[in-house]
Structures are given as C-alpha cells and as structure tokens.
Amino acid sequence: MKKHLSIAFLFIPVLLSAAPQDSHVFFNVRAFGAKGDSTAIETDAINRAIDAAAAAGGGTVYFPAGNYLSFSLHLKSNITLFLDNGAYLIGAASDKGPGGYDAPEPNPADKYQDFGHSHWHNSLIWGENLENIAIIGQGWIIGNGLTREGRPTPGLGNKTIALKLCRNVILKDFTVLRGGHFCLLATGVDNLTIDNVKLDTNRDGFDIDCCRYVHMSNCSVNSPFDDAIVLKSSYALGFARMTENVTITGCSVFGFDIGTFLDGTYQRNNFNRVPDRGAVTGRIKLGTESNGGFRNITISNCTFEFCRGLALETVDGAYLEDITVSNITMRDCMAAPFFMRIGARLRGPEGTVVGKARRINISNIIAYSADPKYASLILGLPGYDIEDVKMSNITVLVKGGAAKEQADIIVPELEKGYPDPTNFGAIPAYGLYIRHAKNIELMNVELKVENEDLRPPFILEDVKGASFINVKAPHAQGVPTFVLKNVTDFKTVQCGSVPDKEIDKADNLKL
C-alpha cells in the first residue's frame, strides 16, 4: 500500500505545475488587458501575451472562459495557445472596432493557384517559419468576421488558422464554427499532428498543402459548401513540394447545414442552395492544386455521410502514387463514391507536363450512392493512363433508376477542366466507368441496385489490363454487365452470369 501511495504522490507536483494558475508557465490573456466581454477588441492584448511568452523562451498563452473578439494574431515559436472550456476566440467583424485583419502578403507565385492558397497573413491566427507551436484546449474559435470568399478584400481575413513553413505543430481538441474560406491552411508544414478537432464550417475544413509527416486522427468536419479534408501540393511556396507521409484515420466528414453538426440537429435543409456544382461537398480529396505531388498516403477507418465521395486527382503535373484507402463507409454519397483523375489543367510554371497516378489500393469499403446520375470514375487522359489500381472487398448500393438513354451518353474528356465528377455529367454506367487506364483489378466487389437501372454496371474504354474476380453486379434484361471499347488483356473469374474469360483484345464487345 505504501508503495502505491508514494507513486501517486509523485504525480501531484507535476499536475500542479501545469495548472493554469501557475503564472510562471501560463501567460493569461486577462493579465495583458483582455476582457473577454464580447465587446472589446482584444487583438493587441492577446498579441502582447504571445510576445511575452516568446520573450520568456516559450510558454502557454491561456484563454480562460470568455468571449474574445480579435483580428489577426501572430504566432511565435515555442508557443501554445490554450483555449479553456468556455473560451471563445471570435473573429471580429471589420466594422466592430479599430483595426482589421492583416493584409495578404505579396506572393510572386500566386498566379499558379487560387488566391486563398497563396496568402497566409490575412487570417485570424497565422504563423510563418516557426517551430514547436500548438493550439489546444476544448474552447471554440468562431469566424464570424471572416469572409468565405477566396479573393482579396481590404481589411478582411478569410482563414481561421494559416501556417507557412513551420514544423512540429499540434492542433488538438478545439472546435471551429464558420471558419471562413479555410479553417486551416497549412503550407510547407512538417511534423503536423491534428487530433480530436471539430469543424462546422462554410467552406474548406483542413487544407494540407505541401506538408510532410502529417498525422490526422479523430476529427469531425462538416463542410457542405466545400471539401472537408483535402491534401494539396500547390506552387504557393514558389517551388514544387510533395505532400507525403500522411495518415488520416478515425475521421468523419459530412455535408449537413452549417451549425447543425455542432448543435446536434444534423439538418439537410440547404441542399438545394449549395453553390458548388449543385451538390453538397464535405468529402476527403487529394488535389485539386497538384504541382508537387502526393506520395505515401494512408486513409483509414473514416466515415462519409451526406457528402461527395473520395477524390484522388492530379491535374497540374504532379505524381500521385502509393496511396492506400481502407475501412471506409459512405452513406448518402451525393456524387461518385470513387473519383480518380489525371488532367491537363497544368497550372504551373512554363514546361509543366501531365503527371501520373499509380499504385492505388482501395479496400474494405461500404458505400451508398444516392444520386443515380453518377457512378465511380477512373479517368486518365489519352496517352496518360491511371495505373495499378486495386479495389477489393467493396460493396456499393446504387439508387439506380436511370433510363436506357443514359447508357448512350458520351463522357467528355475535359482535359483542362476543373476535376470534379459532377462536371462530367450523367454517366452511362451505373457502377464504374474506366477510361485511359492500365492494370486495374477488382476483387470481391458487389454492386446492388435499389431500382432497376438500364445502364450496364461497367464500361471500360482504352484500358490495358483489367481483372474482375468475384465481382457481382445485377443488370436489367438485355443489358450487358461489361461494355469493352479498345480493351486489351481483360479477364473475368467468378463474375456471376458472365463466364470466366480471358480476352486479348476487344474493340467493341458486350458481355
């Protein structure tokens, strides 16, 4: 008994030393003039607390319960912002007091990506060339004064948190409501950990751009108007940089009405008012900005609800390779459950060439697709195949009900177009449409249809090497399971009513 007591007492001084009352460790924003009264503009007081902590060699800037209106806050190295329970850091509206958000800094490379990706200073919280920083605690950040627009507006900020060329960063436990154009823009950040953060926002959730060694876990993102979790590799740093060695696990993404995730009502009333190509977004995506590339990415144990599906895109010359996606459920998927795309937008310096997408494994997925217009898409370009894709242990329930005429639609190439599945319009297959691809394998895949659909489950066009093993897909009477156009090295094994076949070449064959 004495031995157990002595061990317990050893921990007490450690816990006390980290308590908010310890003025040698915590820099309480109230001690620097912040009131937390929902009225005063607290920008200067909070920045004074950050400066004092930095001058002391580092420390924790502590926000006790209260409502803190602020414009741009300037992070420093070795600083933690601690938002305690009941603390609300609120982005001030530009007409509510003196000052405003910092102006967007000049960036000679901003012509290669959207404005929102090219600037960091016009944010509620920003830091550049920093190390060992954290934003933690169970408080909230509310972006009332942030614009959701991705264009320059004097005095306005459009991001909640923006970090450029930082390392050793932790974001944990806090909540963001209405985060502006981006809740987080992290560009060129290494050793980034994001855990148990909740976002309920009016544009993008997490934008992870040109970052390495990123670990995101246990996060929930509601973003009906744009992407929830998106990895990018823009040219905003003035050079191409890979986004690589990233894990995303245990996260949930959705497209409910803004605010209704956090208040627990999960409403869908704004479905017809969503501006982004006619459907809620809220998905996990790699791309669109894609100069530097994506490599060694794992996405696992995540849920999608009432949003678009998974998107893997390279349209600006990047390599997208060594990607694993597993243990995912999707419910009420509003566009393609799976979208893989090579494009030739090539927004980058002169000489940028088309990229590659290869070595992609997708497994253990259950998806319900709610819109009968769409299907999953694997779309390369002529001469630029998507390569080495394996999809296994997948069940997709399709709403179905499409008319026979939809099976005759020609899917446009859209080489230079914006890469979103909805831009390709209605799809002539109900399950998977594959074009300009090489070495595609589907194993233990089952499609189910709620309503009879007069489209074939699978259409393959300009495909070199495709294996379908234990693939089940119902089809209406007189409708083939497979339509093969300019396909070589095609194989079926145990695919229901389709006999086992090995076909060297098929120019226009229906099975």
What would you say this structure looks like, in words?
- The chain has helices at 2-17, 43-55, 115-118, and strands at 26-28, 37-41, 59-63, 66-70, 73-74, 79-83, 87-91, 123-128, 131-136, 140-142, 159-164, 167-172, 175-177, 182-187, 190-195, 198-200, 204-209, 212-217, 220-222, 229-233, 243-249, 252-254, 284-290, 294-307, 310-314, 319-333, 338-342, 356-369, 376-379, 386-400, 432-451, 458-472, 482-493, 501-510.
- The termini are far apart.
- Helices cover 6% and strands 47% of the residues.
- Strand 33 (482-493) and strand 34 form a beta hairpin.
- The protein is built from 3 helices and 34 strands.
- It has a single domain, classed as Single-stranded right-handed beta-helix, Pectin lyase-like (Pectate Lyase C-like, 3 Solenoid).
- The longest helix is centred in the first third of the chain and has 16 residues, at 2-17.
- It has a 34-stranded mixed sheet that branches.
- It has 511 residues and is mainly beta.
Summarize this structure briefly.
This protein is mainly beta. It has helices spanning 2-17, 43-55, 115-118; strands spanning 26-28, 37-41, 59-63, 66-70, 73-74, 79-83, 87-91, 123-128, 131-136, 140-142, 159-164, 167-172, 175-177, 182-187, 190-195, 198-200, 204-209, 212-217, 220-222, 229-233, 243-249, 252-254, 284-290, 294-307, 310-314, 319-333, 338-342, 356-369, 376-379, 386-400, 432-451, 458-472, 482-493, 501-510. The chain has a 34-stranded mixed sheet that branches.
Question: What does the secondary structure layout of this molecule look like, with pairings?
Answer:
Layout: H1 2-17, E1 26-28, E2 37-41, H2 43-55, E3 59-63, E4 66-70, E5 73-74, E6 79-83, E7 87-91, H3 115-118, E8 123-128, E9 131-136, E10 140-142, E11 159-164, E12 167-172, E13 175-177, E14 182-187, E15 190-195, E16 198-200, E17 204-209, E18 212-217, E19 220-222, E20 229-233, E21 243-249, E22 252-254, E23 284-290, E24 294-307, E25 310-314, E26 319-333, E27 338-342, E28 356-369, E29 376-379, E30 386-400, E31 432-451, E32 458-472, E33 482-493, E34 501-510
Parallel strand pairs: 1-3, 2-4, 3-6, 4-7, 5-8, 6-9, 7-10, 8-11, 9-12, 10-13, 11-14, 12-15, 13-16, 14-17, 15-18, 16-19, 17-20, 18-21, 19-22, 20-23, 21-24, 22-24, 23-25, 24-26, 25-27, 26-28, 27-29, 28-30, 29-31, 30-31, 31-32, 32-33
Antiparallel strand pairs: 33-34
